[in-house]
User: Which sequence fits this backbone?
């Protein structure tokens, strides 16, 4: 109901631009490309510094070992993973089809056929449910990849080990331009190597979750991204691709005398010594270490010992504990639910850069129109307010802030999520809650005790409530 | 202790040199270093990026949880851990955020030996560079342990951090932490050693695992302790401690002195290599160039003057001749028809007016040309920005004196007597001719017919005579005019040529004097410039001698410092433990 006008006005704007730039090939190409993107799945880039666990996370999201694809000569290649019926891979800009094989190890792309021509993008089609709503892009390390990420992705999962200052710089950098500043939030921060927190203690993931929560409360970070999620990438992936042999080996470890095994789990060196108390060969142990990490092995053996006794159960438990589910939930809430707004945002950003790159008579008017759409789109106003509330640039009392954030869709843009009730709530209950919220926030928006910023924020919430009632009627 | 004097002497000499150069900032630094080196304690600074396990490394080194470690906890201020009989902890408030630090005392054997450990906040970006004078400044430490974890290779920022530390510090150890959770830490260690070697950093790499060390402390397990890698690190630190005086201090002094000398020498070298002060020499060259230019200019204007004057004279003469010829032509035409006898008065007047006109316009043209030539010559002096066009003007002289008056030529008049006589003479022939003819017809000699014929002949003769007289008069008048105009031409031409020559002379004198003035001025400035350049060169030579002397002193000191750093026995002690 609210998305339609935004998409429409963006569509109109793109058409106007197309008319204005009809004689400029690069401009029309870009604009057309973005018009086509409206019908495609959302593009989520997995970005982050070197060795931050990007490929591991892509694998965990896809549910198969599809990444990384080693480019010859260490070329920086963007690997796109999209849903499809048959696995195949195409290298761009040459458009050459590369042979792929699917094995127990996951995807193998035959890089031998890689043409010496430069390859920027490798589009891999892979049948996976996880890719249905979103195309995932595995990117080279930032900051060198920033420009292309800015251009190609609708949303960004920013991976980091610890969310330090340099990461914030990159995040700021990813929000360059008028459009990005007007609708500042298309990123989620992921503490991607959560299993290494505190030296890989057994409660590392819980600790990492607390760190993530602390980061989320930090106004410097929450102003730049929609949320912070801790994920043990290796554990998550292991959970999704755990084989019976893996499970058998882990079960054998768990079956051996506990103190002795734990003594050997102190370090990776000790875990791979020749004399071992459990009947598991050195090679198998090495493989386990590569797949799960020392933390994963510790966690898995503990879980098996405490009653998670089948492969399926263990896999589910690993996934649950890794934080992958939370990440998926966050992606779905922040990105997939708002995909129209995000795609509109990308299109507007592209339009902005086209106009700025080729100014001509009429482009000023276009820019003004773009600004009007940006300022008028309620989705963006919601996103902006959400960012200000999270960044504490605007603040009410605690409960009020919480309610405002919920209403403007922090927890999801569905009616129930906005109103903070169960999915099964009846229409009449939703109606009652919506009108109550509308009344309350109308009062807030006229409350003389609030300052101008707060009243303006309240007006945005009022508009949201009106939208809710409209969709119910 | 045997070597103590050498490095102390060098250090004190460095301080003196700094004082001689007036670099109080450096003196302070040297003094601080001296105090630190004389102190038998070994200050070990632990640096690295955030979340690499720096605090945990300190804790594991002394087997006590002195530095807070934890998930998401970050060391906020530098923590100094030293020996104390009873565990104590204080926060030392500094003047600002940079100088505030925590001080913790714990009873530990390792610390009692004289080891001081300094845990620092993670260097996120450029923090360490800004550490300045705080306890966390690498310049105030004897050994720096750079902490990097084994889950990944050294990053570019870490290598930059190391390079920064190495610059002010000779002894750096890289600790590769968290080897217990990294299956491939041996590979990472090998790669890191390559990175260090390619960056030119001579720092040993020690793989350690704080987790194992603490586990070993709990269970008192020697084997695990050995596996943790800490005994190696501790042994290394102990070695540095005992070798501080013999090895660390000299090499620290070596590096310090070298750095100080670099800083002192840089401005000197810059001054030495600076090109001769440009200004005086440039002025000299400029003056010389101007002089040459003036010489060329002088030749040029003289040529111009001569050429133009020659042209002028020939042009003026031609013009004059042309004009007089035209008058002559008119005179000829006039006297072909007119009788000088009747028109002389008018003619005389007309000729006078015409000649005056000719003289005036010719002379006016001459004066115009002279002015123009003067301007042309003055153009050569434009660059000197002097107003050199002479003030003087040639006035139009009285030209009428050249014209004179034309005398009426001696003209024969045809008087009445002459006419009668001429008539009679003519009539005689006719009378006789016709008289004789008529006598044949029987008429007397004198008869009406012969009389008539005589009268007819007489009349004709008178008319003929009159005509020839007129022609003679006209010829005479023409000749007289011709002569008059020639005279006029001669006189006026002479006057013009004289005037032109006079103008030429005047102009020549004028511009010669202008050139001389300019020349004098330029020579004067040239002399000044030369003097300035000479004085400058002398001054520079003196300064150069001074600088060279200072450089020699620095070089000696530098040599001493170098000897301190490369003493072979020093290296023998720094070999890694087995």
Assistant:
């Amino acid at each position: 109901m609210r998305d339609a006008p935004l998409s429409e006005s963006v569509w109109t704007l793109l058409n106007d631009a197309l008319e204005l730039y009809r004689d400029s090939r690069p401009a029309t190409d870009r604009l057309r490309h973005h018009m086509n993107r409206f019908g495609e799945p959302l593009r989520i880039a997995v970005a982050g510094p070197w060795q931050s666990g990007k490929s591991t996370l892509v694998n965990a999201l896809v549910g198969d070992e599809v990444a990384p694809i080693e480019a010859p000569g260490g070329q920086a290649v963007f690997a796109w993973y999209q849903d499809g019926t048959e696995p195949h891979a195409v290298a761009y800009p040459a458009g050459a089809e590369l042979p792929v094989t699917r094995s127990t190890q996951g995807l193998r792309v035959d890089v031998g056929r890689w043409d010496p021509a430069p390859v920027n993008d490798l589009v891999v089609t892979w049948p996976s449910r996880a890719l249905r709503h979103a195309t995932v892009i595995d990117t080279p390390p930032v900051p060198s990849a920033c420009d292309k990420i800015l251009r190609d992705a609708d949303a960004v999962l920013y991976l980091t080990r610890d969310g330090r200052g340099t990461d914030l710089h990159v995040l700021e950098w990813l929000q360059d331009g008028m459009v990005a500043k007007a609708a500042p939030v298309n990123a989620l921060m992921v503490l991607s190597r959560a299993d290494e927190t505190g030296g890989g203690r057994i409660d590392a993931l819980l600790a990492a979750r607390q760190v993530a929560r602390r980061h989320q409360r930090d106004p410097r970070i929450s102003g730049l991204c929609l949320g912070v999620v801790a994920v043990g990438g290796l554990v998550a992936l292991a959970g999704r691709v755990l084989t019976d042999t893996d499970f058998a080996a882990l079960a054998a470890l768990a079956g051996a005398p506990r103190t002795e095994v734990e003594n050997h789990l102190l370090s990776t060196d000790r875990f791979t010594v020749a004399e071992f108390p459990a009947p598991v060969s050195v090679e198998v142990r090495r493989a386990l270490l590569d797949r799960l990490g020392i933390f994963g092995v510790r966690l898995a053996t503990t879980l098996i010992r405490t009653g998670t006794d089948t492969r399926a159960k263990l896999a589910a438990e690993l996934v649950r504990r890794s934080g992958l589910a939370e990440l998926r939930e966050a992606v779905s809430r922040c990105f997939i639910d708002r995909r129209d707004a995000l795609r509109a945002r990308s299109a507007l950003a592209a339009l902005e850069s086209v106009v700025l790159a080729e100014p001509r008579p009429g482009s000023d008017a276009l820019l003004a129109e773009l600004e009007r759409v940006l300022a008028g789109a309620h989705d963006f106003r919601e996103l902006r307010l959400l960012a200000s509330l999270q960044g504490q640039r605007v603040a009410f009392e605690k409960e009020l802030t919480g309610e405002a954030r919920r209403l403007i869709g922090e927890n999801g843009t569905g009616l129930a999520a906005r109103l903070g009730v169960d999915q099964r709530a009846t229409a009449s209950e939703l109606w009652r809650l919506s009108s109550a919220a509308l009344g309350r926030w109308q009062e807030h928006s006229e409350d003389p005790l609030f300052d101008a910023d707060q009243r303006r924020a309240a007006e945005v919430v009022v508009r949201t409530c009106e939208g809710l009632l409209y969709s119910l009627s | 202790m045997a070597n103590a004097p050498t490095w102390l002497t060098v250090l004190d000499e460095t301080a003196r040199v700094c004082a001689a150069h007036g670099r109080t900032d450096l003196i302070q630094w040297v003094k601080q270093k001296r105090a630190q080196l004389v102190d038998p304690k070994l200050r070990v600074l632990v640096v690295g990026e955030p979340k690499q396990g720096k605090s945990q490394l300190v804790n594991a080194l002394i087997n006590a949880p002195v530095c807070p470690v934890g998930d998401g906890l970050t060391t906020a201020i530098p923590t100094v851990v030293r020996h104390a009989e009873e565990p104590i902890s204080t926060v030392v408030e500094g003047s600002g955020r940079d100088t505030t630090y925590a001080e913790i005392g714990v009873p530990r054997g390792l610390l009692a030996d004289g080891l001081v450990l300094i845990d620092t906040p993670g260097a996120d970006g450029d923090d360490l560079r800004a550490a300045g004078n705080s306890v966390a400044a690498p310049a105030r430490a004897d050994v720096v342990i750079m902490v990097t974890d084994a889950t990944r290779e050294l990053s570019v920022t870490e290598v930059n951090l190391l390079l920064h530390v190495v610059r002010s510090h000779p002894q750096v150890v890289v600790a590769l932490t968290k080897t217990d959770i990294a299956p491939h830490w041996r590979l990472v260690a090998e790669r890191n050693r390559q990175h260090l070697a390619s960056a030119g950093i001579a720092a040993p790499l020690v793989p350690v695992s704080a987790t194992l060390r603490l586990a070993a402390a709990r269970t008192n397990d020697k084997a695990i302790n050995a596996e943790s890698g800490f005994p190696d690190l501790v042994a290394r630190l102990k070695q540095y401690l005992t070798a501080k005086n013999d090895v660390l201090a000299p090499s620290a002094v070596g590096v310090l002195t070298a750095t100080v000398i670099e800083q002192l020498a840089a401005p000197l070298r810059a001054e030495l290599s600076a090109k001769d002060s440009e200004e005086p020499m440039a002025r000299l060259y400029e003056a010389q160039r101007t002089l040459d230019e003036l010489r060329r200019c002088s030749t040029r204007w003289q040529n111009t003057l001569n050429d133009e004057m020659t042209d002028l004279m020939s042009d003026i003469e031609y013009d004059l001749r042309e004009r007089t010829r035209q008058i002559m032509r008119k005179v000829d035409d006039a006297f072909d028809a007119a009788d000088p006898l009747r028109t002389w008065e008018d003619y005389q007047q007309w000729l006078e007016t015409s000649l005056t006109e000719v003289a005036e316009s010719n002379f006016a043209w001459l004066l115009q040309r002279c002015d123009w030539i003067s301007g042309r010559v003055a153009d050569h002096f434009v660059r000197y920005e002097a107003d050199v066009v002479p003030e003087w003007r040639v006035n139009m002289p009285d030209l009428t004196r050249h014209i004179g008056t034309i005398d009426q030529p001696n003209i024969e008049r045809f008087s009445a007597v002459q006419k009668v006589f001429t008539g009679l003479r003519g009539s005689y022939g006719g009378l006789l001719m016709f008289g004789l003819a008529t006598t044949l017809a029987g008429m007397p000699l004198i008869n009406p017919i012969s009389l008539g014929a005589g009268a007819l002949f007489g009349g004709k003769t008178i008319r003929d005579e009159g005509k020839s007289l007129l022609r003679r008069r006209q010829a005479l008048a023409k000749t007289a005019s011709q002569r008059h105009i020639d005279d006029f031409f001669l006189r006026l031409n002479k006057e013009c040529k004289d005037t032109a020559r006079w103008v030429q002379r005047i102009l020549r004198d004028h511009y010669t004097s202008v050139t001389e003035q300019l020349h004098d001025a330029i020579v004067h400035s040239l002399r000044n410039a030369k003097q300035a350049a000479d004085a400058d060169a002398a001054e520079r030579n003196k300064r150069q001698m001074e600088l060279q002397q200072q450089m020699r002193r620095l070089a000696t000191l530098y040599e001493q410092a170098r000897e301190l750093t490369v003493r072979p026995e020093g290296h023998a002690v720094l070999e890694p433990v087995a």
Q: What stands out?
A: The interface with chain B takes residues 50-51, 161-162, 164-166, 193, 196-200, 204, 207-208, 210-211, 214-215, 266-270, 272, 286, 289-290, 293-295 of chain A (CB under 8 Å). The mean pLDDT of chain A is 84. The two ends of chain A are 11 Å apart (CA to CA).
